[in-house]
Amino acid sequence: SAASDVYKRQHQNICSSVLFRPNKPDQLITGGFDFTVQHWNWSSGSVIETYKIQREGSNTLQAINPPHVHQVSSNLDGSLLVAGLGDGSLEVIRLSDGVCLELPDAHSSIACQASFPKFAPGSILSAGIDAKIKLWNLNETGNGDDDDDDEESIYLLMSFENGAKVNWISTVDASPCGNVFVADVEGDIK
Length: 190
Fold this sequence. Notes:
The chain is mostly beta strands. Helix content is 5%, strand content 45%.
């Protein structure tokens, strides 16, 4: 159909992730192995913004696993995106102004999952083929210095060893604490 033709070949390589932006049913987010996250107007089929994942310099992991976008997720109100990248890093994108915050070396191998857990607003949950699941705090208010009030920072809260490569994670807000469900290469759901 003509509508589906609009979306063909927008990524120059594999399109690995897609989601509708929360509270904006006419907006779509895609991520791909062409090192881009694309923000779309679903109804018109046009790209609103393309975020190119660029890295200064190169390291051994990037030579083996470049920063392909493996997965993109949105926070509950749709204002932030997080992408899990092939070089083990995470990229946080603030959609209001396009500011990107990189978390290099979040994982020692591909960061195959990245999401905003339902049980911890202001946090990021990531998982990698290094068999680690990590909970990060996204500090949107800076570190308290007057010069850094508009800056965001990310720091590690917890790290768990899963014992096997993670394929997918999902969260639920089950009071009084949240739960993380993990599907891994062993065929188990933990």
